[in-house]
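question for whoever is on the cluster today: can someone run the full assembly for these? two chains, 912 residues total. i dont have access anymore since they changed the login thing
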Amino acid sequence: MKQTIPYKIYLEEQEMPKQWYNVRADMKKKPAPILNPGTLKPVALEELSKIFCTELAAQELDDTTPYFDIPGEIRDFYKMYRPSPLVRAYCLEKKLDTPAHIYYKFEGNNTSGSHKLNSAIAQAYYAKKQGLKGVTTETGAGQWGTALSMACAYLDLDCQVYMVKCSYEQKPFRREVMRTYGAQVTPSPSMNTEIGRKINAEFPGTTGSLGCAISEAVEAAVSQEGYRYVLGSVLTQVLLHQSVIGLETKAALDKYGIKADTIIGCAGGGSNLGGLISPFVGQMLRGEADYDIIAVEPASCPSLTRGVYAYDFCDTGKVCPLTKMYTLGSGFIPSANHSGGLRYHGMSSVVSELYDQGYLTARSVEQTEVFRAAQTFAKVEGILPAPESSHAIKVAIDEAMKCKETGKEKTIVFGLTGTGYFDMMAYQKFNDGEMKDYIPSEEELARSFASLPKAD
Amino acid sequence: MKQTIPYKIYLEEQEMPKQWYNVRADMKKKPAPILNPGTLKPVALEELSKIFCTELAAQELDDTTPYFDIPGEIRDFYKMYRPSPLVRAYCLEKKLDTPAHIYYKFEGNNTSGSHKLNSAIAQAYYAKKQGLKGVTTETGAGQWGTALSMACAYLDLDCQVYMVKCSYEQKPFRREVMRTYGAQVTPSPSMNTEIGRKINAEFPGTTGSLGCAISEAVEAAVSQEGYRYVLGSVLTQVLLHQSVIGLETKAALDKYGIKADTIIGCAGGGSNLGGLISPFVGQMLRGEADYDIIAVEPASCPSLTRGVYAYDFCDTGKVCPLTKMYTLGSGFIPSANHSGGLRYHGMSSVVSELYDQGYLTARSVEQTEVFRAAQTFAKVEGILPAPESSHAIKVAIDEAMKCKETGKEKTIVFGLTGTGYFDMMAYQKFNDGEMKDYIPSEEELARSFASLPKAD
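^ ran it for u. tokens below:
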């Protein structure tokens, strides 16, 4: 007998994952090790522990342990906003008149407005456990900074956020959310750090970049007693924590006997995508199931579809370990008219390696079509999505429309990573018909690739 | 055996209410009838149907039918964002170190950011069913306008929103959410209506008021073929729709065998409070149970605690029916430094009558203590609350602290009506230490009472 699928599938509290899943453990060919930018040798735990909390550094380097227990304190925090619903998009299906069954895992029902909180609480927890005073980080649009502020407020930990200057000025609301949670928010590049002063001197009036804010946050962490640096994406520890998204998604599907055909996620640094797909890719790696997995990125920042697979710097200041990843070069900065987030120059080493091995495909989409998809979705599903998440919506709609042509009743699952409530300036541009698309030229990418480190 | 109470109690989809509850049916002494402002006679269905959809006008006037079926189409829409969770505030309890058990019904997990969507979809549905082209309404901060825009987009109905001019200018983000959902948003007072032009001529440069925006929206509705006016609070039909909040809350409590002692809600026009308390007051009216019910209002707009119980105009233009309610006079405008919503001069006739009969008590609180409570709550419960909702938080914390003194293990339930993501300018003022309190003087209220109609 077939069960009726509710609009929203919620796991019970006791069904929530008790362990994170480390997909690297099931990969025969592992992601390349991260390297010390000075010695070009694999980074040791001891070195990495100077930047990250020791337990997080250990998670970063561990590519053999398949499961990590989620500490009880973190699970308690998760219970405040998780399990997140797996939503059957009945209204979108009806609107598209498609035979496809569309599901989305909605991570936006918390004040940070996104999935970032899943890793923020984990990183703050390990910092607290290690007896640290506080953590430093960078934030672009502010999703990650907000999430970290919330986690730090909960654990009574100091939180210093370097916010890309243009966002600090243009997005005062997220800044105020962080301040309400007690975080200290500094526009980057600042005069607090050596690298900040250097960049300000070299490029007077610069409005900053994520790579530069990372460098400042790292410097602030290593130069203050009792502080460590934390990061919201790209790192493998973040993917580990974000596996809670995929594990819950899989548990919810299994609960109703649903088998996904296509799994779609937006890809910036890769944390949401990596977390969502981890348990499914795990099945593929173990030969237990097969899925069509699609990473969606902005055409204006196309690291998977047009990048190279090489060791690169993670930050502008070149202080972080070198990572082998699909990258546009650490000097790459997306066009000023790019509104939709997902603006990091590289991609998680795990996602990069899985992509290189053919476990997923990638597509790039332009922003006006992304916002159009967002609007369609908002009108029928009642959620105003983040521009980032809307990249996945766009391709989910495309796939559902293909099903309409072929008549195939595919099951499509996508990650709705967050809400767009703090992105209304971008929506306003769209509403006013003033949004432009931008695709970097071959020449532009070639110039950017020149910033890659020479040794590989 | 005592069950463990999860952090979030979710009803199953099939446990969601199938009927709204009309508390008036159980009241021996009914709220006074609404009057035609010209004839001072009770308004007939026929008259009221010129302003409201016929079915909504019938709901407005019906004080005997205890239950109204929720149409299937509305229940389907509800399924997209309901049932809303009843949250056990474990972390707040721990922070306060109180023996009290605190629960909150969280209505903010939808893009409108509040409970307003519950009535918006109902009102839009009946308008669509009547074959109308569209609806008109007013909005202050924009919660109601956003909710109505969402409902109209879903049903493909035209939506015209008159937004109080100061909010239109100072809160562009909500305006853009409404526009993304396809609504036509006009700053009020506008030059579109006779009353708008009159007010603009009389008070050049005015930034508007809710009462004035109501008058414009009503005029726009009656002067366009195929349009009706809809309203987000105050009206009894709205309370009827909002009873879904109370019904779900009661069902969730009953599911776990929990008996509430104290029920707390913030009170502006009374829609959330009335909806939350309806089924509980119903039990009190039928002699089945007893509760301590507390309405919380801003000290700067104290209609219950300092108003008079009298017939008054609902709008500045005096076009709406006269309603007997606790009121500060329709000429009352809260001080400019008031940030926290809940700025309507009067109170729902049902809530007013219940208050007059002693079924609930009322308290007024000042805004800096409200924002302080909001911050405490946000840090431990992870949700940044709307300033409106934070009035209820403030009193819930007060009550929990009393339990700490007395050692009583009371069960406190409060309504968390929404999120504060679009109220960051108010939070910024609070973060910067620039928020001021304001309590209107006796003289100020006396002047305002002078605007009451003479006949009663």
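summary bc i know u wont read the tokens: The radius of gyration of chain B is 21 Å. The first strand of chain B starts at residue 8 and ends at 9.
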